[in-house]
Amino acid sequence: MRNLTGSALFAGALPRAASLPDLPRALPWSGLAAAAAWLALAGATLALPESGDFPRTGSLATGAGLLGLALLPASLLASRLGRAGARLRHGSPWVAALALGLLAWELVTAKFELLPMPFFPPPQAILEVFLDDWPKLGGSILNSLKLLAGGYAIGAALGFALGVAIGSSRAVGYWAHPVLRFVGPLPATAWLPLAFFVFPSSWSASTFLVALATGFPVTVLTWSGVAGVNKAYFDVARTLGASPAFLVLRVAIPAALPHVFVGLFMGLGGSFAVLVVAEMLGVKSGLGWYLQWAQGWAAYANMYAALIVMALMCSGLITLLFRLRDRVLSWQKGLVQW
Amino acid sequence: MVTATQERPAARIANAAPAGAIGARLTIEAVSHAFDIRGAALPVLDRVGLAVEPGGFVALLGPSGCGKSTLLRLIAGLEPPDEGRIAVDGRRVDGPDPSRLLVFQDPTLYPWRTVRGNVALGLEAQGVGSRRAARIEAALRLVALDGFADVYPHQLSGGMAQRAALARALVNEPRLLLLDEPLGKLDALTRLAMQAEILHLWQEKRFTALLVTHDVEEALVLAERVIVLGDRPAAIRADIRVDRPYPRHRDDPELVRLRREILGILGQPT
Predict the structure, then answer these.
(1) Tell me: the pLDDT tens digits for B125-155?
(2) Residues A201 and A144 in one domain
(3) Cα angle B72, B97, B133; round to 5
(4) Any idea what the CATH number is for the domain that residue B37 is in?
(5) Residue A58 belongs to what domain range?
(6) How far is B68 from chain A (nearest CA, A)?
(7) Which residues from A are below 8 Å from B168, CB to CB?
(8) B77 and B93 in contact (C-beta within 8 Å)?
(9) Are residues A293 and A154 located together in one domain of the fold?
(10) Which residue of B has its CA nearest to A239?
(11) Subunit contact A2:B121, Cβ cutoff 8 A
C-alpha cells in the first residue's frame, strides 16, 4: 500500500519534456528566423527613405541589428546554454513575431505613411521618448507606484481584517453587512469629486480611493472564505482544545487564504483603474498624469510610451502577486498559472 | 498486515505518560436529544443510557441516520444534550476536551498543513507544541507515517489520511477515543488493515474506545460489547457481550452466531 502511494506521489514529477522530439543536430529554425527578422527590421529602417524627421532612426536600426546579430550565435548554441538556452528556444517564435510586428509598424508609419502621422508615431519616435524623456517617465512610474503601494496596502489590510471580523463575529456581521452591501458596489471613482474636497491633499484623496477600490473585493472575498470554511475543521480544533483565537488565526484564516488571494487579485485590478483616473483628474504626477499631459501637448509618442510602461507595470505587479500566492498556497494543487 | 511483534516506539510514550493515564470511565444517563429543523424538533436520541468501563471497547451499531454520530458529538462536548447527563470519570461533560477525542469518518486533515503539522495541531492548540516535538514523531511512527511527515494531505491515500487523523488524536494521549465510522469510506482491504491497527493501538494504549459503525462484522471483530441501536429516535435495543479473545477471526462460529442474532434484531434477513 505504501509503495503504491509512494510511487503515485512522484508520478507528477515525470519529465514533461520527454514528449518533445530530441533533435540536437537539427538547425534551430525559429531562432534563426528571429535573428533574420530583427536584421530585416534593421535593414528596412536604415535603407528605406522616411518622410519626417526622426532623430532616433539610427538608434532603432542599430539596436535591432545588434539584437539580430546576437540572436544568431545564441540560437545556434542554445542547446548548450542550459536553462537560458531552453527559454530562448521556447521564446524565439515570439521574438521573431515581435520583430515582424515592428517592421510592419515601421513600414506603415515612417516609411510609407499609410497611417496619419501625429496620431501613429513610428517605433523610433517611441524609442526617442524612452531614450530622451526617461527622467520624467521614470519619475512618473515611481510616483504611481508610491501612490498605488500606499493605497493598496491600506485597502488590503483593512479589507482583510474587516472580512475576517465579519466572517467570524455575528455582531460585526450584523452591522457591517448592510453598509458593505449599500456602499461596496459603488465604483470607487464615483467618490472622486467628494474625496478631492474632503481630503487635505489630492495625494491623500487618491490613496483613499485606491484603498477603497482594493478594500471592497478583499473584504467580500475574505468574508466569504471565512464563512465557507468546512465546519468540521472547527470541530476538530475544538475537540483538540483550541481557543477562540486559535480557531480564527490558525483555522479560519489559513483555510480562507485561497479566497483572500482572489480578492487581492480583483482589488489590484480595481486599484489600477482608480489610480489612473485619480492621476488624470487630480494628482499632478504619475503615469496617469503623464498620459494626460502627453495628450494635451499632442505628444502622441509619449502617450504610447506611457501606455507601454503602464502595461508592463500592471502586468509585473499581477505577476508578483501570483508568485506570492504560489509560495503561500504551495499546498494547493491545480493553481492557475499566470 | 500490522505486525504486533515489530518494535514499537510507542512503548516509550506509554512510559513517559503518568502511570494512571489509561482509559476513562464513561457514564451516559437518560440522554435525549433533538435536532431543530426549521422550527420543528426532530428527535434523534431517546433516553439512551450506557456505562463503559475504563479501557473498554464498545461498538455502537445501528442503521445509518439513527443518531449514533450525534451521541458521539455529545460525548465529545461539541454540543450539550437536551436532556440527561453525560459524565467522564464522574465529571459532567460541559465542553470539548483533548482527553476525549473524536475521529471522524472523513479524515478532515487541514490541507494547508503537512502531515506533521496536522499531527501537531492538538499540542499547538494547547500551547505545548514546541515542548512535545518528540511525541509528534513517535505518533507518526506509531501509525507508520514517519516517512510521510512532510507531505501534504492531498498527496495521501484514503487509508494514510485516516491513519494521520488517528495520529493527530493519539498524540494527545486521549483517555477516551470516539471513533465515528472512521473506516466507512475506505476500500475493503485497507479497512481490514486499519481494523487491525485500531485494535493494536487500543491494546497498547489502553484508552477507552467507543466505535460507531454500521458494519456488524467490524463491531464483532473489534469490540468487547456491541450496543445495538434502533431506528430514529435511537434507543438501545440490545447490549451484547462479545467474549472472544483477540485477534478474532471473522468465521469464528461464535461471532457468526452473534452476527445472525444482531442482524435479526436490526430486522434484516440472515
Answers:
(1) 888 866 778 888 888 988 888 889 899 998 8
(2) yes
(3) 120
(4) 3.40.50.300
(5) 27-120
(6) 17
(7) 236, 240
(8) yes
(9) yes
(10) B96
(11) no
